[in-house]
Amino acid sequence: xxxxxxxxxxxxxxxxxSISLYLIVxxxxxxxxxxxxxxxxxxxxxIWQTLILSxxxxxxxxxxxxxxxxxxxxxxxxxxxxxxxxxxxxRSLSIILLVVYFGIHQPDGILSIGLYIGENNTAITVxxxxxxxxxxxxxxxxxxxxYLLKIKSVWDLSKPGIKEFVDNKTTSMRFVSLLLLLICVxxxxxxxxxxxxxxLGKISNQIYLFGVVSIILSVLTHYYQGKDKLLFHLLFAxxxxxxxxxxxxxLLAITIHIFNNLYVAIMTWRIVDKKFDSGCxxxxxxxxxxx
Length: 291
Known about the structure:
The protein is mainly alpha-helical. The chain is 70% helix and 3% strand.
C-alpha cells in the first residue's frame, strides 16, 4: 500500500467515523432517552460522554496508524516498537478509565457496562465458552474462505494487524505485547460493546440499533488492515455484539476477542521463529497458514 493509498484510507475512516459519531449523537438526541431503571438520565450528559470517549479513541488511533505508516519496511526498530506500545497503552487505559467512570455513575454501576458474571456462570465457564465459540467461528470462517470464496489462506507478515507482532523479537518484548493485547481488548470491548451496546442501548431502549452502530464502528476501526479483511471483521463484530446482547455482559465477548488476538500473535511468532534466524524480515512476506 502506497503512502497516498494509506492517507486516503485514513481519511475515509475519519470521515465515515465522524458520520457514525454524528448518527449516535443524533439518535441519542431524538430517541426517548429519559430513564434508566426508573431514574432520570440527562441525555446531554450521555452525548458529552460519547464525544469524550470518541476523542480518546480516535485521536491516539490516528497517531498510532500514522506512526505505523512512516516506513515501508516490516522491521521498524526497537525504539519505534516501544513507542507504539506506549501509545496503545495510554489510549487503551484512558478508554478503560473513562468507560468505568461513566459506568459507575449510572444507577446500576458497572453492571450498566456489562462488567459482571451471571449467577449461574463462573470465570471458568466464561473462558471455556469463549474458547469453544472462537474455535467454531474460526473454523466456520476458514470454510467460507476455502469453499465459498475460494480464497487461499496466507499469513502475510506485512499486513497491518499482523506486522505489529513481527518486531517483538525478544521474550520481554513479546511478554509486554501480550499484556498490551489484554489491555487493548478490554478497552475495545468496554467501548464498543459495554458503552455503546449495553449502556446506550438500555438508556435509549434501542439495544439492537446500537448493536448495529457498534458493528459499523468496529469494522471502520479495523479498516486499515485492508479490504480483504472486511468480511472477517464484519462477522467477528456481529459475533461479539450477539454474545453481548444474549449474555447481558461483555465478559464472553472479551474472552473470544482475547483468544482471537492471541491466535494471531502466536501464529505470527511461530512463523517468524521458524522461517528466519535473524530479526529483520523483508517486506510483503506471506506464507500459507497450513505450513
